[in-house]
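Appendix B. Raw example, untouched.
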Amino acid sequence: MYKIGIIGCGKIAQVRHIPEYMANSNTELAGFYDLRQDRAQELATKFGVKAYDSYEAMLKDPSIDAVSVCSANHTHASITIEALRAGKHVLCEKPMAITLEECEEMVRVAKKEERFLMIGHNQRLTKAHRRARQLIEEGSIGDIISFRTTFGHKGPETWSIDPGKNIWFFDKDLARLGAVGDLGIHKTDVIQFLTGQKITEVMAKIVTLDKKDATGNLIGVDDNAISIYTMENGIVGTMTASWTYYGKEDNATVLYGTKGIMHIYDDPTYSITITTKEGENIYYEIDKIQTNDHQTASGVIDLFAQCLVTQESQENSGEQALAAMKAVFASVESSRTGKAVKIK
C-alpha cells in the first residue's frame, strides 16, 4: 500500500485525486497540505489522517511515498522538484509548469532522482479516444489530412473551490496561462496521441476577449486561444480553447481523412461517428466525455498507482507531457510575435 500526500486541497483534489486514490486498492491517503490550513485540517479530520503545517514538512515525512501536486500553476515546478529531490514520486496537475525551462527541469530532476513524474493529462485515457486511435491505426478513415479539436466552456469561476471572479485562475502571477494552459493543453496532448505525431510548427492567436475580474476589467490571462498546428508528417489542423462558451460545453475532435471523417465526442449519443467517403455512417456508443458538471473517473490516478506498483513508467510521463507543453509555449510566442514558431 502506497501512502499518498495531497498538496493543494482545491476542487481538482476533491473531485478527482482524493476519491480516485480512495477507490484504488494500492493507494492510501496519508496527509493533506493547503495554504488554507482550515481546509487541509477539515479533510484530514474527515479521512482520519494528518494535516501538515507546510508542504516541506510533508516531503520530509519518510512515510509518504508519493504526492499529488494540486496547487496553483506557478508553484507546480518548485514543489514538484523539491518533492522529487525528497525521494517522492509525483503526480502533478496540468499545466505542467509556467515556463518551458521549468518543465525541462522537472523532467531532468525526475530522471536524476529516479522517481516517477506524471502529469494529469486525462483525455488520452478516455475509452473513446483510445478506441479512436485504434480505428485510425486500422485505417478506418485512411490517412489523416487535417483536424479540428476544441475544448470550450463558460470558465473556471463557477467550478473553483472558491467560486467567483477573484479566483487564482484569472491572476497572471499565479496562473500565467489562461484557457490555453487550462483547456488547450488537453487537446494539444490528445491530438498528438490520436495522430501519433508530434507538433512541429505553430501559428496562434491567444487573446482576452470577454472574461472580466471582480473590478470589471479584463482578466490578466487569456480566455481564448486558437492555434494552427502542423504535425511531423504534414497534417495541419486547429486547436481551440475557450472560457467564453456560455452554453453547452464543447469537447470535440474531428479528423478528416482520405477515406472519411471521424467525429469524437461530437454527438450526444455516440462518442465516435465515422462517415466514409462512400456516405456510410458508422456509430460507436462507448462513453461520455466528462464535464465540469459531470465528473467521471479520470484514469490518471490508477495509472500513477500502476507506476508505483510495477515500478515501470507509464503514459503521461513528464517527458511525454513536455512535448505538449512545447506546443503551448510556442502558441504563446507565436501570438506575441505574430509569426509561426517551429518546435525543436
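End of appendix B.
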